[in-house]
Fold:
Amino acid sequence: MRDILSDVDSWQRQGVAIALATVIQTWGSSPRNIGSKMALTLDGRITGSVSGGCVENAVVEAGVESIKTKRPQLLHFGVADESAWEVGLACGGSIDIFVNPLDTEYFQSLHPTWANESQAVNVTVIHGSDEILGREMLIFENGDVKGSIGNEWYDAVLKTGKETLAQGISRRVMFNDTVEIFLEVILPPPTLIIVGGVHIAIPLTSLAKTLGYRTILVDPRQAWGNTERFPHVDKLIQAWPEEAFGQIKINRSTAIIMLTHDPKLDDPALKIALLSSAFYVGALGGKTTHAKRSKRLLNDGMSESQLSCLHAPIGLDIGAQSPEEIALAIMAEVVTAHRKQNQLSAEKAAHAVSNPTR
Structure:
């Protein structure tokens, strides 16, 4: 949603009627993930994508119809291997897409969640009576709620929403074979925090941004952490780690990397990072450096269990030598850790009770 937010905002300011299409499930091979969105208007404006192929044409037609009739639609597209490339579903597969006329008032309450570093789950009725079809409800991390899908289902949906947010994976849930909801988890964008503006940090921040990560550089040393060296980072904090991390919200979408080789910088940062909810914490240095680092941290009160979460030596073993190759090795390990986290969450969601009303 973040990639189409500015367009939707612009259209809303113009008072244009909008339909929002969301990928709610995929099978087999699909070029777009669950939660991918496309917005469209009656006059033919489109932003975003739900398949990357001509499935979009059918979705646009459904979206225009939904705007005119003010009725949501649940669409299913399935293709055979021989026709897959024609519709953008490589190697065959199928997708379900929910098309809903955009509720301007509700969207305004949802907007800050997408725009900021918030965590929430958006619940949409994708199957049910005409009275509740398309209704939405937003459940925040702190338990606050906006919107409702109907009092009869409120308690059950609230419980399921909180469980889904804790698992971190969007999913569909059926209630008594009459009502089906789509729970879309909204998480902060992945963020990479780098402590130390050394030379490796330059290609590392560039590569991270290419991969969609928000980048933050921490270094109190003016010669290393300055805008001339890092004009492309999203945030530059010229402060010592204890002060710098007080300005940063660390969550499960955060990766933290230490690059300085300086205990005065790396150690305080590690003591904060290893106690946080960050999905990845790594530190540059060979085995000898890591052994000395571990000894210092253990003597300073950290446990073996906490240190076991530290990736060191950092990066996948690809034989990297240049700063650019080292940056590639580091980001490869970060992405691997992020995907593993998502996979574990998906497995937990798969084992969750699919019908919470029984």
